[in-house]
Specification:
This protein has helices spanning 15-31, 46-57, 74-78, 88-97, 102-117, 125-141, and strands at residues 2-7, 38-44, 65-69, 80-87. By secondary structure, the chain is an alpha/beta fold. Helix 1 (15-31) links the parallel strand 1 and strand 2.
Amino acid sequence: MTLDVLIDDEFLISEDLIESLKAAADLTLSEESSINSIVNLRILSDIEMQQLNKEFRNKNRTTNVLSFTNNDLSRELTNNIGDIAISYDYVSSEAKENGKSFSDHIIHMLVHGIYHILGYDHEDNISAEIMESKEIDILAKLNIDNPYN
């Protein structure tokens, strides 16, 4: 599995955190039997996130994470299953508000985004319980507390 990470220079993301993000992606995809998959991660600003959210979801506001599943022919040829955008600003603020570490929260957002790419959602209570349970299990294996408590 490969996680390709693109980070704007303005954001302070340590090499250790990048390695933790890659480990989280590896574990998530391994648990879901997608070990040869490639995911692209872009960490960006609230301004860029708001533009993406407006363009692709018709919501003119920022958010923490957006996932884009690759459903075209290239998926079979490249094993690239999709793209994830995470707002550094939003996740940083959200982590502070909820008393979480930035590292734990951004890892959770990556895992959450990967599950969306894999077809999971939280549109209803049953779907949300399934997706959240999977996230909690992965995060526990990474020594990250249940983010839904």
